[in-house]
Amino acid sequence: MLPAFEGFALGGGLIVAIGAQNAYILKQGLKREHVFVLCALCALADAVLIAAGVAGFGAVVAATPWLTALAAWGGAAFLGWYGARSFRAALHPGRMDTAGGGGATPLKTAVLTVLAFTFLNPHVYLDTVVLVGGLAGQHPPAQRLAFGVGAVLASVVWFFGLGYGARLLAPLFRRPATWRALDLAIGVVMWTIAGSLVWGRV
Prior knowledge:
mainly alpha
């Protein structure tokens, strides 16, 4: 049980941060758009990456710097574009329908967006595959599965808690000014992360 708890604590510590993926899930949760699908997709992606780390693929990632470099440049471009879009939305705010309805993001667009946020972030490979995998490797083989399951469970709890818990903030977002503040914050987060990715490569 202890390895599972350690995995849960590590997974929670890594994922509970203000990042591009979390900001997007928060916004979709506020709009009540495709919440279950997107939360499940994020948790599934983490599960696959964590499983790869526990299975020992962390050494492969660490030995292929071109992979993280490719993800860094692609991620910086995508985050730069999405940040600009958020700033543009902040300049033209409106009352968002937090109960769903018209103007909803198509499911395909939402899925592709969350996949881009997930897999074009080089830190996700370092955190889930290299770090989680490396720490799992410190345990005896019989306990590594429990460690990985604990980390996956933390991801499931976090994403579904964030996605469905966001609706508790819905009353605040009936005012355009609140949406403007959120879009500005998301834009700053996206551009800050994009800048850090570029800075780390120059």
